[in-house]
Specification:
Blueprint (H helix, E strand, L loop, with lengths): L2 H9 L2 H6 L22 E3 L24 H7 L2 H17 L4 E3 L22 H16 L4 E2 L17 E3 L2 H8 L1 H10 L3 E4 L3 E2 L2 E2 L4 H11 L5 E4 L7 H7 L11 H11 L5 H24 L7 H15 L1 E5 L12 E4 L24 H6 L7 E4 L4 H6 L5 H17 L2 E7 L18 H13 L3 E6 L14 E4 L7 H10 L31 E3 L8 H6 L17 E8 L3 E3 L4 E9 L5 E11 L10 E10 L4 E8 L1 H4 L1 E3 L4 E3 L3 E10 L2 E11 L14 H6 L4 H18 L5 H16 L6 H4 L6 H12 L4
Helix pairs in contact: 3-12, 4-5, 4-12, 5-7, 12-17, 15-16, 21-22
The structure holds beta-D-glucopyranose.
Length: 769
């Protein structure tokens, strides 16, 4: 605590301390003028600034609308994320916003999650690295970031009340690591806790998450604020580590804090810790604001950046017969209302008022001569917007016009997507399908035009029942205000696509990992798939996805060769260096995302087939080759062992794969890892013989005792028939291995007394000499 903070604290009354713990209104903290403590401004959000100053929810100030997080995730490009973060940070600083409420780094547990468009990935490493880069960008502008929503907040259905029931290992391996990486790499100024309870305890009151893990284990130095309205027991929140309740609540809970201290239910010293950390944030934010040299920002440059990012996010999912890029010589039928009126962001608190908008049509049409390119809407956007049923006759006429245009052209470009009402904060999607009329339109176009490319505008995976019939499929996400221009660049080949899916696209909803447990029963959602989320599930169950995690094609080809390890045997304390060469063997310059996966070949527990442990995006001119270097260390081989509360590495063979997607692995090698620090769970009377024998200090005495007991049992039957003897041996061996030690006296009719158990247990506790 600095001198200044100590002094302020000493002068504050109890009521003043409590007042700092909740907002003044929706977007500001409280000021204490008599002590010159200012209030600071907070604003959404994850892909652009949403400042509500006057007006309400839909009247935020104009800001650059960048592609939403699922598109940002598909870039796999940390440098770009840093640039986006700095641009948004700069716009925030210009509006005197001191904390930006983003990024969202929750894991996409189900493709139905209503806010998936606001999150990066189904993979924690990718989410963490991109989130950290974004945060470093924001904070480089003297504006704090606020990663959210901490944690296990993976659905909208009952988002304020449903308890995420998730086992410790799954929490540690899937739902916490993105936040952990971010805290360790980027020290965000703030963190937003989730609305939901985690294992029955509200995230806003969860001491285990907010204090023990976030602060004590990871060393988080910032403050935790509540999601808007996530607070219930405010005094418990202070104990747990929730600094700021947002929004203000007209101070109702300030009084709760005061009373809790006065009645001795909350220690004032604990309140002081919380308040001093809040003061540290406020002082830091004020100092950053007053030292900001230049807060002007260039609208055109930010728009240009939004376009670059959008172009890099686009995933070329299918390109049969090289139907893409389009050639302007061919007559083209552009079909789909979204081509002129793009959907480029999702609904809810992240919705930005853009500075300008681009549509695909105007950027495509300029490449064709009059009459060589046509546009037909094919479906009715107004109906989606107003929730109205389209008259059947009008619908059929629109489809017929589109089909006629497709028939008269050499190729068709059909732009489909999810309407606003399908994808927004506070409601999950009900299914994976595009609107029925869009699928019907496409089927009819396909019946007359075999050269058809589909472009998709959506923030999360959709089902594509027609995927074998279209030659090209382009996933353009919710591409932000410049998305239309970016899409045209990719379709025309001016930008070589380099996006890779940061989430699996399944063939059908029933294939998804959380299918049986989403969105849960009543107030409880069981994370029954455990660590098998996203590709970890499809791999393990050998389910073919529609498009796998990490997939995305290019207009060029990349070749991988010469994977070299610094050693083929390492200890779990070593860092492994590895390198490989990647070359562009096609004829166009392009970028490849080289993905590194690790798989544990000999594990005593169920582990994913492989897990992403590194990635690099590399630019290569046609014919160029580059050497890439990666490092792997202990955590990359580890799983979380909740029986001992630690990350563990087991000795054995691991495979290392380098690939262009999770299902397109190009190079594989083996590595022996020797564990030096394995922690064995303590052997107790409830442990089985197998566990005793697995323990290094129990192995020899355990095996000896096991053999004696087994032979004693077999001898007691007096059986001489070798076949029967063999069968009894197998039978009793299996029983004995699984037998908890405390059962031995009864099982051996007293031949193995209780006192012997004590000897066995003592052996496992005696330090080796
Ligand atoms: C959302 C947050 C958002 C906050 C402020 C909440 O409803 O869950 O993500 O930052 O509102 O708009």
């Amino acid at each position: 605590m600095t001198e200044k903070i100590k002094q302020l604290l000493a002068q504050m009354t109890l009521a003043e301390k409590a007042s700092l713990c909740s907002g003044e209104n929706d977007w500001q903290t409280k000021a204490i003028p008599r002590l010159d403590i200012p209030s600071i401004w907070l604003s959404d959000g994850p892909h652009g600034l949403r400042v509500e100053r006057t007006g309400g929810f839909y009247q935020s100030l104009a800001a650059t609308c960048f592609p939403t997080a699922s598109a940002l995730g598909a870039t796999w490009n940390e440098d770009l994320l840093h640039k986006v973060g700095s641009a948004i940070g700069r716009e925030a600083a210009a509006q005197e916003v001191q904390v930006l409420l983003g990024p969202g780094v929750n894991i996409k547990r189900s493709p139905l999650g209503g806010r998936n468009f606001e999150y990066y990935s189904e993979d924690p490493l990718l989410s963490g690295r991109l989130g950290a880069a974004f945060i470093q960008g924001v904070q480089s502008q003297g504006v704090g970031a606020c990663p959210k929503h901490f944690t296990a907040n993976n659905q909208e259905r009952r988002r304020m009340s449903v308890s995420s029931e998730v086992d410790e290992r799954t929490l540690r391996e899937i739902y916490l690591p993105a936040f952990e990486y971010i805290v360790r790499a980027a020290q965000p100024w703030t963190m937003m806790c989730a609305y939901n309870p985690v294992n029955g305890v509200l995230a806003s009151e969860n001491e285990y998450l907010l204090h023990r893990i976030l602060k004590e284990e990871w060393g988080f130095e910032g403050i935790v604020m509540s999601d808007w309205g996530a607070v219930h027991d405010r005094a418990q929140g202070i104990v747990a580590g929730l600094h700021l309740e947002m929004p203000g609540n007209t101070g109702i809970n300030d009084q709760v804090i005061v009373e809790a201290v006065e009645e001795g239910r909350l220690e004032e010293a604990r309140l002081d810790e919380i308040v001093s950390e809040l003061l540290a944030l406020i002082l830091k934010a004020e100092a950053a604001k007053s030292s900001a040299v230049d807060t002007n920002w260039d609208r055109a440059a930010h728009h240009q950046l939004a376009q670059q990012v959008s172009a890099e996010s686009i995933c070329l999912l299918k390109n049969e017969e090289e139907i893409l890029p389009l050639t302007a010589g061919n007559k083209l039928a552009v079909i789909g209302a979204f081509a002129k009126q793009a959907r480029y962001q999702g609904g809810g608190s992240s919705k930005v008022s853009p500075t300008q908008e681009e549509n695909l049509w105007e950027h495509l049409a300029k490449h064709w001569e009059d009459g060589q390119i046509t546009f037909t809407p094919g479906y009715d956007l107004a109906a989606y917007h107003h929730g109205a049923e389209v008259e059947e006759e009008k619908r059929q006429t629109q489809i017929a016009e589109a089909v006629a245009s497709a028939k008269a052209a050499d190729q068709a470009l059909v732009v489909l997507g999810l309407p606003d009402s399908y994808e927004l904060e506070s409601a999950d999607r009900k299914h994976l399908d595009l609107p029925v009329d869009q699928n019907e339109l496409l089927w009819q176009v396909l019946a007359v035009q075999s050269n058809t490319v589909v472009v998709l505008l959506n923030g999360s995976a959709v089902r594509m029942p027609w995927h074998t019939r279209t030659k090209g499929i382009v996933e353009a996400w919710l591409g932000g205000q410049a998305g239309g221009a970016a899409l045209a660049q990719v379709l025309m080949g001016e930008v070589n696509p380099s996006g890779k899916l940061a989430e699996t696209f399944p063939l059908q909803l029933a294939d998804t990992p959380s299918f049986l447990n989403f969105p849960g029963d009543g107030q409880r959602v069981l994370y029954g798939e455990g660590v098998f989320v996203g590709y970890r599930y499809y791999d393990k169950k050998k389910i073919a996805p529609l498009f796998p995690f990490g997939h995305g094609l290019s207009y060029t080809e990349f070749t991988y060769r010469n994977l070299t390890l610094s050693s083929n045997t390492i200890s779990d304390q070593d860092t492994l260096e590895l390198s490989l060469q990647v070359s562009n063997t096609g004829s166009k310059a392009g970028q490849e995302v080289v993905q590194l996966y690790v798989s544990d070949q000999e594990s005593s527990l169920a582990r994913p087939e492989k897990e992403l442990r590194g990635f690099q995006k590399v630019y290569l001119e046609a014919g160029e080759e580059k050497t890439l270097h990666f490092q792997l260390s202990r955590r990359d081989f580890a799983y979380y062992d909740s029986s001992v509360g630690a990350w563990q590495v087991e000795s054995g063979i691991f495979e290392i794969h380098l690939g262009s997607s999770s299902r397109d692995l190009r190079l594989t090698t083996e590595l022996l890892v020797e564990a030096t620090a394995f922690i064995y769970p303590p052997v107790t009377a409830y442990s089985t013989f197998e566990e005793l024998i697995a323990h290094p200090r129990g192995a020899s005495i355990g095996q000896e005792t096991f053999d004696t007991i087994l032979e004693g049992i077999l001898a007691s039957f007096g059986q001489e028939d070798p076949a029967k003897l063999r069968e009894s041996r197998v039978f009793f061996e299996a029983i004995l291995y699984d037998l908890p030690l405390y059962k031995l006296p009864a099982f051996t009719a007293g031949r193995f007394p209780k006192s012997q158990i004590e000897i066995l247990l003592a052996a496992t506790k005696t330090p080796e000499t």
